[in-house]
Write the structure tokens for this entry.
Amino acid sequence: MSIASMTGFAREAGVTGSYQWAWELKTVNGRGLEVRVRTPSGLDAIGEEARGQILKALTRGQGQLNLSLSKASSVPKLRVNQDVLQSLLSAIGGLSLPANVQPASLDGLLSVRGVVELDDDAADPAQDEELMVALRAGIGTLIESLKAARLKEGQALATVLGQQLDIISRLVDDAEAAPARQPEAIRARLEAQIAELFEAKATLDPARLHQEAVLIAARADIREELDRLRAHVDAARGLLQEGGSVGRRLDFLAQEFGREANTLCAKANDVSLSRIGLELKAVIEQFREQVQNVE
């Protein structure tokens, strides 16, 4: 199973009867899962239905779902109101017209207000139901498209994270093999530092001298930090191979990487180890930033 990114975009559009519609879904990274919905007036119910499906399909990320809907304009239809026309004809038929007045013509009758009406498209329940079916099918396809986009982005993320783990592992090996880590170098530094302490024995009691010597020896040893860094690298690689919703666990490991690198830098009393520690911190920070996008 591959990891998925929390970043993705999908669009699904169609035409149903005289309606043109389009779903758009965009997600970005987030600590939890949140989806906002924007739909045309009167379509709140289908929007909430779609939101519920998205929440079931994803585990992390902030999403924005938009539905746009338009209706194709049609040629206006004219309709003769037969009731009004008949009533008008009856009224005219009962009139006694003077000789110089012509009888009403058809065009004159049709120009009377109310005889000819503009027949607007009435609501079509069958077409509206067909639209709902199309929108429901569209949201299903939309979610699958978004998941595919997030998986594709996740594959690219996995490659980058794997490369960063390789660099961290190499730097740990460099720290292990650093000349300052050799027993002779460590012994020489300890001897020099302890000698300085003994030179100050006039102001330090034997117990304090022993305590300072123990602290110097502890600070010179970065074995535990190196071992834990290697263990974290193995754990991170295991999560990348496992796939699925591993973003939170990778984020935790990134924090642990940072702690060990900070301790290594604090213990480093050699230029080469300090340089390696700083490189480690830089790569770990890049790793942490990339992990923020993993679902």
Summary: Residues 179 and 278 are 17 Å apart (CA to CA). The longest strand covers residues 61-71. The first helix runs from residue 44 to 57.
